[in-house]
Write a sequence for this structure.
């Protein structure tokens, strides 16, 4: 038998060394991870009777069943380990960064003989040159497209110069979007000049390209080539738009992130301004969870540790609104990660202070707007659920399941089950049913099969989990709804009640009654049709659930019809098996496109040889005769 953990005895064994400590509850779940310069002093402090440390810490201490610790050689190592363990385990008493975002970069493959400009989510040590990070993926893609248009750079994956002349130029060359180095249409030296122009553009030197495009536009206009002049005009407009976004500059031309925070008793938002080469390239806000009773300094500290452990780019400076604990240690850690000196500073005057004030205003605005959004969202979800509870006269309503049947004259009968919890869709619990026992258009019989299979499956799972002594939440069907919603009135409700009675299950059942225009007009519950205010949030939620059940059933039915159509035509062609059928549909998207393709077009599918392409063509076209 395992020996009981004696907290007081284990406290005596704590070493006077730096490290990380882990607090666990009676289920051995990690509740909190912290670091310490001295484990002996830090961990013991939790178990002293200290007034004023906050209700949250007191609650955590009451739940500690055991603790463990990992000794490190330095406080810096403890900081890194603490951060890794928090990210891995998401303890409920640690303040957590809610958004784990990756930011886009522009990657220039300068190590290649004919470089490309690519979109990248990661910054690697691969001899390429990176620009960013940027906050908008769409803006990055637009910028890359613009540069490729202006300089005629290649976008293909061909290995050059090895593959020069191996194949003909792609469509981009014929559209005047690529200089076709793959076909030897441009020398390596001339291409290098274009890449240098692109690099200058990405570094913010827009003047040369604006002058060049202006000259070309005027030249084309003088030659009365107005189409080409319009092309240069559009490119010029795009370049000016990109340049316009970079108006806010810093004469120091440095990379820095400016952080500000806004918080209340429950929520916190950290706003980050990204300054690269002295230009403000964008901003982003981040939500922090588990912030209750924590001071802003601690929330900010946790943000810095968690965010900069995950982002690939670390700027030279981090401007903070106030001093945080362990600034020296964090500076060393960030310097180690970046490979060059990183500074944490608190601005006091001038432009830096103004940007900090601007970031703080934005953080407060986001927090305020988010509270309004959450209030509206709560009205649409939890508030709507409470309205339904009141209308039906029931309590404890959280999980609702809705069912629908879809078929066309009895062909491919299918059923759908959608799940809403606390007024929000829980898509991971949605289920599709292919009807097995009903061959004709009998919605009542189909619904009876769907409900019987769903509830029987749930009962079987519950029994199995009880026998194996596993927590019931691990079963997908074990959780029964607090309310079943049927897409219809008395008839559908009675079918459901019959199934529930046969299985010995007691769940309220409500019908969503439609009017002559197929719109919900009321709810059928306990043999009575209850009118519902069409302007209420409860009515809107019922309508959303009904529409979702209908959509889910129709999509499943449509997918089965599509598969049946593919099978009925392509499978009749000799030599077309599952692999070739899949390749054809992936390439052409529809049977009609395959029917309209000639032999040369069919041959473009790698899996289709010439003789097979001819057979496919003849199959469709001989059938038309």
């Amino acid at each position: 038998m395992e020996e009981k953990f004696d907290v007081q005895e284990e406290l005596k064994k704590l070493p006077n060394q730096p490290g990380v400590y882990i607090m666990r509850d009676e289920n051995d779940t990690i509740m909190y991870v912290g670091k310490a310069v001295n484990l002996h002093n830090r961990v013991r402090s939790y178990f002293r009777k200290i007034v004023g440390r906050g209700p949250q810490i007191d609650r955590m201490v009451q739940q500690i069943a055991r603790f463990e610790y990992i000794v490190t050689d330095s406080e810096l190592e403890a900081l890194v380990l603490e951060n890794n363990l928090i990210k891995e385990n998401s303890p409920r008493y640690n303040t957590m960064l809610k958004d784990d975002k990756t930011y886009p970069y522009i990657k220039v493959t300068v190590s290649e003989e004919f470089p490309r400009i690519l979109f990248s989510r990661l910054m690697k040590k691969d001899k390429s040159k990176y620009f960013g990070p940027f906050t908008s993926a769409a803006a990055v893609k637009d910028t890359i497209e613009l540069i490729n248009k202006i300089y005629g750079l290649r976008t293909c994956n061909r290995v050059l110069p090895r593959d020069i002349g191996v194949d003909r130029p792609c469509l981009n060359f014929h559209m005047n979007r690529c200089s076709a180095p793959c076909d030897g249409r441009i020398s390596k030296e001339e291409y290098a000049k274009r890449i240098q122009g692109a690099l200058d553009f990405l570094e913010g030197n827009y003047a040369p390209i604006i002058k060049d495009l202006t000259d070309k536009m005027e030249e084309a206009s003088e030659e009365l080539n107005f189409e080409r002049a319009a092309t240069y005009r559009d490119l010029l407009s795009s370049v000016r738009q990109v340049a316009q976004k970079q108006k806010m500059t810093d004469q120091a031309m440095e990379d820095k992130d400016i952080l500000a925070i806004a918080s209340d008793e429950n929520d916190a938002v950290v706003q980050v301004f990204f300054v690269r080469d002295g230009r403000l390239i964008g901003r982003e806000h981040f939500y922090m969870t588990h912030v209750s009773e924590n001071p802003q300094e601690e929330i900010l500290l946790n943000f810095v540790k968690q965010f900069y452990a995950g982002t690939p780019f670390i700027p030279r400076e981090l401007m903070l609104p106030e001093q945080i604990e362990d600034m020296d240690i964090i500076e060393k850690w960030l310097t180690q990660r970046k490979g060059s000196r990183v500074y944490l500073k608190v601005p006091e005057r001038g432009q830096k202070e103004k940007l900090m004030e601007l970031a703080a205003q934005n953080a407060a605005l986001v927090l305020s707007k988010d509270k309004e959004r959450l209030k509206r969202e709560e009205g649409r979800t939890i508030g709507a659920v409470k309205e339904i509870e009141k209308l039906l006269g029931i309590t404890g309503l959280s999980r609702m399941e809705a069912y629908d049947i879809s078929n066309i004259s009895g062909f491919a009968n299918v059923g759908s089950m959608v799940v809403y919890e606390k007024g929000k869709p829980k898509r991971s619990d949605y289920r599709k049913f292919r009807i097995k026992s009903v061959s004709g258009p009998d919605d009542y019989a189909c619904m009876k099969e769907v409900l019987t299979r769903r509830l029987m499956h749930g009962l079987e799972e519950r029994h199995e989990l009880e026998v194996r002594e596993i927590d019931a939440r691990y079963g997908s069907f074990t959780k029964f709804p607090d309310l079943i919603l049927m897409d219809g009135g008395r008839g559908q409700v009675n079918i459901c009640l019959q199934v529930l009675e046969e299985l010995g299950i007691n769940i309220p059942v409500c019908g969503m009654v439609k009017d002559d225009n197929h719109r919900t007009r009321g709810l059928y519950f306990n043999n009575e049709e209850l009118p519902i205010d069409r302007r209420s949030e409860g009515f809107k939620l019922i309508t959303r659930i009904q529409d979702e059940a209908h959509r889910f059933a129709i999509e499943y039915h449509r997918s089965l019809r599509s598969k049946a159509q593919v099978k009925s035509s392509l499978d009749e062609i000799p030599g077309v098996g599952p692999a070739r059928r899949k390749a054809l549909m992936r390439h052409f998207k529809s049977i009609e496109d395959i029917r309209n393709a000639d032999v040369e077009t069919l041959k473009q599918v790698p899996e289709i040889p010439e003789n097979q392409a001819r057979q496919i063509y003849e199959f469709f076209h001989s059938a038309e005769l």
